[in-house]
Q: What sequence folds into this?
């Protein structure tokens, strides 16, 4: 089963019109894959049938949103990125009396807690606020609870150590049955909130914005628009951290940033 | 000549355990001015990030490149999926990446690449499954066949790990079962057309 670009565009356009969720500037191959997946799961065979159902049935749409916007990450994903944050970003953040950080597209929160741990170890968590946002409410709920499967902790711990962590990682969580829960002290300065990068506006000014492996889902126009949003939301000399395969290549603002760490995709807003 | 008279526009290759040796065997004969792109998913660990590309490049004349996000696909380049991302092909023949959940424990997944490639290239695509210990690529091979592309699988008896070739053959959508030497010949033949 497959469908043409035009049919896909029409479907995304009607979703935008009816629900205000805009996927029209998403990279098509992933959206197509996720829609096909959802249709197979719901045993819906034709795209036009699906299109008719989804604009009428809000419940189905809610379910669709939860399924189509799920991404999977881990704590200290790409440890060298976090190592670079320790070396190149944390000391600079420490010079601010009050630190505001935005984790945009935080998914299920693993990277949010990773950042909180870095801040704590730098001794600046208590004067920081982390705004963690995502389009997917279900993911946000998981992020808020901070409860993760115990079987992933081994690799999370290894990542933490590779990222330059020297504390005992298990001090940051309590294990219970097959899950672990991250410590309250990490959570108290995190604000979890829904935010849709494709349509929502800037809501604060930050010294550091982290948005990793979210831009890869957007086409060039939307990437440009979102980088503009980050640019507006950063103070001068604020930092921007992207995913290891992402860049500012498609952004008209690329000259207004300098590379703090080229390989780890950490940028600083210079004008 | 194994394929019918079709103008192929791209080759996708999926490999898992044992893949490095099989891939270098295939790629070392590819000339640097090869007529079409070759796009590869090799199941790999998350790091080091560029080791696979470096090893292959040291043995090959053709340019070997880890894919960058939104990169335009060009002829004569061998593209490798980056570790820990799915690789997809857009209908405008650019690459995109995703961090959707691993499929059968694999990210990158061969199925994800093959299915999106079949959508983009339709009948002008060649898909090849090499050695491996799981059944990734089964769905991808079916997609390529359904879009009238050409499907090839490494002879399981020759493959270091036959499970993945056998799984692909099991779909009954495989056109040719070939040894690496035969695949080499085929890759050079389509280049002269």
A:
């Amino acid at each position: 089963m497959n469908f043409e670009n035009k049919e896909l565009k029409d479907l995304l356009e009607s979703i935008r019109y009816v629900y205000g969720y805009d996927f029209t500037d998403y990279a098509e191959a992933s959206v197509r894959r996720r829609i096909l997946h959802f249709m197979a799961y719901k045993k819906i065979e034709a795209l036009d049938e699906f299109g008719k159902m989804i604009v009428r049935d809000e419940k189905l749409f809610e379910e669709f949103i939860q399924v189509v916007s799920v991404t999977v990450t881990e704590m200290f994903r790409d440890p060298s990125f976090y190592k670079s944050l320790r070396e190149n970003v944390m000391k600079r953040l420490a010079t601010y009396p009050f630190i505001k950080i935005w984790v945009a597209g935080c998914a299920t929160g693993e990277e949010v807690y990773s950042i909180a741990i870095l801040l704590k170890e730098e001794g600046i968590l208590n004067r920081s606020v982390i705004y963690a946002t995502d389009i997917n409410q279900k993911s946000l709920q998981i992020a808020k609870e901070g409860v993760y499967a115990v079987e992933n902790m081994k690799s999370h711990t290894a990542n933490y150590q590779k990222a330059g962590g020297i504390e005992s990682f298990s001090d940051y969580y309590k294990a219970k049955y097959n899950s672990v829960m991250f410590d309250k002290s990490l959570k108290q300065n995190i604000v979890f909130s829904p935010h849709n990068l494709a349509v929502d506006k800037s809501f604060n000014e930050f010294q550091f914005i982290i948005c990793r492996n979210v831009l890869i889902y957007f086409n060039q126009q939307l990437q440009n628009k979102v980088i503009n949003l980050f640019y507006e939301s950063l103070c001068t000399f604020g930092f921007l951290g992207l995913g290891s395969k992402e860049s500012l290549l498609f952004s008209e603002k690329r000259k207004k940033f300098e590379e703090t760490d080229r390989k780890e995709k950490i940028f600083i807003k210079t004008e | 000549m194994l394929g019918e008279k079709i103008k192929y526009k791209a080759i996708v290759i999926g490999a898992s355990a044992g893949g490095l040796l099989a891939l270098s065997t295939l790629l070392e004969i590819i000339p640097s001015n090869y007529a079409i792109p070759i796009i590869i998913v090799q199941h790999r660990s998350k790091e080091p990030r560029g080791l696979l590309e470096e090893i292959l490049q040291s043995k090959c004349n053709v340019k070997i490149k880890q894919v960058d996000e939104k990169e335009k696909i060009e002829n004569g380049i061998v593209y490798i999926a980056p570790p820990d991302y799915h690789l997809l092909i857009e209908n405008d023949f650019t690459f995109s990446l995703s961090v959707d959940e691993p499929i059968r424990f694999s990210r990158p997944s061969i199925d994800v690449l093959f299915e999106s490639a079949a959508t983009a290239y339709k009948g002008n695509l060649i898909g090849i499954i090499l050695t491996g210990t799981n059944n990734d690529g089964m769905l991808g091979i079916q997609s390529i066949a359904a879009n009238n592309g050409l499907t090839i699988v490494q002879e399981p008896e020759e493959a270091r790990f036959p499970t993945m070739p056998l799984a692909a053959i099991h779909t009954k959508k495989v056109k040719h079962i070939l040894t690496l030497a035969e695949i080499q010949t085929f890759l050079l033949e389509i280049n002269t057309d």
Observations:
- The helical segments of chain B are 19-27, 51-59, 110-121, 138-146, 163-170, 180-192.
- Strands of chain B lie at 10-15, 38-42, 63-66, 77-80, 86-89, 95-98, 125-129, 150-154, 176-178.
- Chain B touches chain A through 23 residues (CB under 8 Å).
